[in-house]
Amino acid sequence: LHPPAGSCTMSTGEDAEWLQWVTKQFGNIAGKDKEISLEEFRTALQVKESFFAERFFALFDTDGSGTISLEELLKALSLLVHGTEMDKLRFLFQVYDVDGKRIKFGFIWGCEGAVVYQVPALSLCGPCVGSGSIDPDELRVVLRWCLQESTITLPEERLGDLTLALFEAADKDHSGSITFEELKEELEAFPEVMENLTISAASWLKPPAAMERSHQPRCLNRAYWHNHRGTLVFLGGYTSLNLLLFFLAALHHASRGGWVMVARGCGQCLNFNCTLLAVLMLRRCLTWLRVTPVAKVVPLDQHVVFHQLVGYVVLALATVHTGAHLANFSRLAQQDGHHAFTEYLFSALPEVGGLGGTASQTGLALQGLLAAMLAFSTPCVRRSGHFEVFYWTHLSYISVWTLLILHGPHFWKWFVVPGCLFVLEKVQGLAWRRAGGLRIIEVNLLPSKVTHLVIERPQSFHYKPGDYIYLNIPAIATYEWHPFTISSAPEQQETLWLHIRSLGQWTNKLYEYFQGPKSPIPEPKPLSRSLRKKRQQRWVSTGLGETHRLCSVKCYIDGPFGTPTRKIFSSEHAVLIGAGIGITPFASILQSIMYRYRRRKQSCPSCHYSWCGDLQDEEMALRKVDFIWINRDQKHFEWFVSLLTKLEMEQAEQEPGGRFLEMHMYMTSALSKNDMKAIGLQMALDLLATKEQKDSITGLRTRTQPGRPDWSKVFGKVAEEKRGKVQVFFCGSPALAKVIRAQCERFGFRFFKEHF
Fold first, then answer.
1. Which residue, 489, 531, 553, 674, could crosslink 440 as a Cys pair with Cβ 3.0–4.6 Å?
2. Which residues form the EF-hand domain (predicted)?
3. Is the pTM of this model over 0.85?
């Protein structure tokens, strides 16, 4: 039986809540006529192409009026949300049966005791219901639109291969068409799809699940303290030391009044914090400290974040320090009458302090410089194409330190050792520059706007996997230095590789400089036949195509500088996660890992003697590596795929069937398997990957997964493997870092993030 017209009463509180939610959402997208047109329906579905919107719309529009009413929408969505697997499968079949016309939705009413219930039911209506089967041409049409919906680009022949793979698997009786029963049988091999089969409109018009929040604050969680213990200890010690310095200095000047106590207390804290600002940017010293026990206690990975924090503290202390002195000057001017308030500010008076009594003048200058440095170092300035403003205002640190020595009589005692180290680091950096600089000898421009630079490597340049350098190319910008991770392995002796994505003004200018046949690139020196042959072999092995160019562009580097990824080789189970271009640190690391892995596996085929005794456990303690790469679309996989292919082949040769290095690829723009607009495509990709042992999107053996990773499942699987202590290393956006950090706290994994 069908319910009376307009009757959509639900039997449970949950269904009533869902009905209320759908009605509200319907009102947001429907026009004044309370009907949804095709364009409004397409917008609500959030589909990229109109094919699926038109198919769903035609199936939802049961009366053929060209619009969808609230009743029709409720009936259709009830089927997709509350219907059985069979109901959803029949709907999916009708979507793929392109020459099918219409499907009819309704409810079957029934009762059990005192409970009245209704079940969504589906039936075909009208004399013309299509062929009732899916032929290869129909399947090819749907898969073509599936590719466009997931922003995947494949050659026409690959589309044919996908169609053939899915059709051969589903056409059990080899009749030349797929019936509903055959499609159902094929889908039963994908139970996770059957459980979650839906479309975006059904999930969008479903009430959001209530968030379960813990009553305990996150900062009191044991896992949080475990993962942040170094940072928390450092912050605690930093705060305690500032308070101690403040109170000691304030008590020492207690006889001179409250304003002087505040000013002197802040002044002593400023001595410490202005020195700490310099210490936190001693990159060479910090890199050296990473191999010492200090790295286990002090969070060296956060040195840039702490530098920014201390900068804000310095400005706050300076403001309070200046305000206290101004209040004291006002008090002295009113009580003594020897000097006016303006004299205390702008005249050199011995009783004020400082070299020659210039404490007031140097203090005001310092306040202005610090405010300017902080204002022009904000992200909105650095990332809006005005990096040179940040660069030149930050160079005023020389003036700040000079004024501090003149302003405070005891600052030099704090600054002498860090100042000398800072000068030595700068001298070493200048020595690299005065040595004549280096040359960019090759460049490869990738369509994803990634510039691959090959730089000649000096014999004295030694670095660790994952390290980064500062790069200056005078032809791009004379004074700008930018940090980039080295993407070549240290074992590669001849050259350094950098992969630079065009995201800002400088990187875009770099890409444009090397782009086009008329770019002003100096011609390289003639190469010998042997060197030319060696380069051609490297282009083949690394996948460099026709876009590579030989050149001779002058550049300067400063570094190398260490990163958290240096801890990878001391891990037992390392999980490497890169988002987009954030994969660059792991390019070098993965190459070095496989190099050391090969060395560890080398032995004599006759006596099985291993000649790798020099490879100590602390140099390579890894038992398992999980590599996760998340990209938005297909083209961003291209620059790194050749290297990953090489690593897969090497592992297959060294350890057939081995799982030492396991790769996981995710493409966020691709629709997941539980979406009706992608289920056929993802099934076809799975079938073809199994048949060819190769992924159609990247060409790797590893299958590219659609959508975003389910971190709970990913880390749950890692924890179940029990391959040793797990450490997670991430390079990517701060938003994703927060999500991954929270999951690491849940599973008790150590978390490390790249900071430049």
1. 553
2. 48-83, 165-193
3. no
